[in-house]
Specification:
This protein is of the alpha/beta class. The chain is built from 7 helices and 16 strands. It is globular and about 50 Å long.
C-alpha cells in the first residue's frame, strides 16, 4: 500500500497519473537536447532526449528526462536486454535518475531490458499496458499520464499489432515540449506498420488505432517508432498521412496488403514473448500495482 501511495497520484478526472517526484512550478522554455527543439514560453525548463539503436533487432530505445528538475528524473522506452549496459552508462554519464523502464507492447523480436534494468537500478519501476496481460510494476491504460518531473507522457491505446499496444505521446500544453512526440511502438512505423498475423493482431484494429489515435494528433507531431529497417529515424504525423504506403489506403485496401505480406515466422518469438510476458527478468511472484481512479 505504501508503494502505491508514493508512486501514484490520483486525479479528479478519470485519467490516472504516475508521478514519483514532487512537482515544481518553473518558468522558462523547454529545449530538446540534441534536436534543436524549443518552445519560447519556458526558457529554463529542458527536456533531454536520446534515440538509441540495437542493430540485431533494429529496435529503437528512447531516453527522456526533465533536466530542469533537481533530481533529473528519466525514463526509458522499449529497452533491449542486449544494450542495457550501454543505456545505463548513458544515464549515469548524463547525471540522470532513472524512474521508469517502459514497453509499448510485448515484443516478439527481442527480450525487453526492463527486468534487467530493475535488477541493476533499485527503485526503477517497469511499465506496460494492462491489456497486454503481462507482468510489470505498473499496468497502464488509455488516458493515464506518466510524469517525469514536470513533463508527462499521455497513454493512447493503439492495438492491432498486438492486443496490448500503446502509444506514448508527450503532453499538450504551454509547459510541455512542442512539437509533440509520439512513441508509436510497432503500431506505426516510418512508411509502414507492424504485422498483424500473431499475438492477437488485427488489421481492422490497427487501421482504426492509427487513424483515430495517431493521425488525429497535430500534423507536426514527431513520430518515433520502435523499429526501422531502412535507415529512417523520425517522421511526422503529416508525412505518414501523405506517404505511408499502407495506411494511406482505405481499410479494405489496407487489409488486403496486410493479408498478403507473406512474412516469415519471427525467429525470436518463441524466446522473446514468454520472457516479455514477465517483463524480461520480472519476479513472477510480484503482484503488479494498479492505480485507482475516482
Amino acid at each position: 500500500m505504501l508503494l502505491r501511495v508514493n508512486l501514484i497520484r490520483i486525479a479528479r478526472s478519470p485519467s490516472r497519473f504516475f508521478n514519483p517526484l514532487p512537482l515544481q512550478s518553473k518558468l522558462g522554455s523547454l529545449r530538446m537536447a540534441t534536436a534543436g527543439y524549443t518552445t519560447s514560453s519556458h526558457p529554463s525548463r529542458k527536456i533531454l532526449f536520446r534515440q538509441l539503436f540495437e542493430k540485431e533487432s533494429s529496435t529503437y530505445t528512447y531516453l527522456l528526462a526533465d533536466v530542469s528538475h533537481p533530481e533529473k528524473p528519466a525514463l526509458l522506452i522499449d529497452p533491449v536486454d542486449k544494450t542495457v549496459e550501454r543505456d545505463l552508462n548513458l544515464v549515469k554519464e548524463l547525471g540522470l535518475k532513472l524512474i521508469y523502464a517502459m514497453n509499448t507492447h510485448v515484443h516478439a523480436d527481442h527480450v525487453t531490458g526492463t527486468g534487467l534494468i530493475k535488477s541493476k537500478v533499485p527503485g526503477v519501476k517497469s511499465i506496460i499496458s494492462k491489456a497486454s496481460q503481462s507482468k510489470a510494476d505498473l499496468l497502464i491504460e488509455a488516458g493515464d499520464k506518466i510524469y517525469i518531473g514536470d513533463l508527462f507522457l499521455e497513454v493512447r491505446s493503439t492495438p492491432g499489432h498486438t492486443l496490448g499496444c500503446v502509444t506514448y505521446v508527450t503532453g499538450d500544453g504551454p509547459d510541455q515540449p512542442q512539437p509533440r512526440m509520439a512513441f508509436t511502438g510497432d503500431a506505426l512505423l516510418i512508411r509502414g506498420c507492424g504485422r498483424t498475423d500473431f499475438q492477437g493482431g488485427s488489421s481492422h484494429e490497427l487501421y482504426k488505432s492509427v487513424h483515430s489515435q495517431i493521425f488525429t494528433l497535430p500534423k507536426d507531431t514527431l513520430i518515433y517508432p520502435a523499429h526501422d529497417y531502412k535507415g529512417f529515424t523520425v517522421s511526422t504525423v503529416g508525412e505518414e498521412m501523405l506517404y505511408n504506403p499502407r495506411l494511406t489506403k482505405d481499410e479494405e485496401g489496407f487489409k488486403n496488403i496486410m493479408e498478403n505480406l507473406n512474412l516469415a515466422y519471427p525467429k525470436m518469438i518463441d524466446v522473446a514473448v514468454p520472457a516479455n510476458m514477465v517483463c524480461g527478468l520480472q519476479d513472477l511472484s510480484s503482484k503488479p500495482a494498479e492505480a485507482v481512479s475516482n
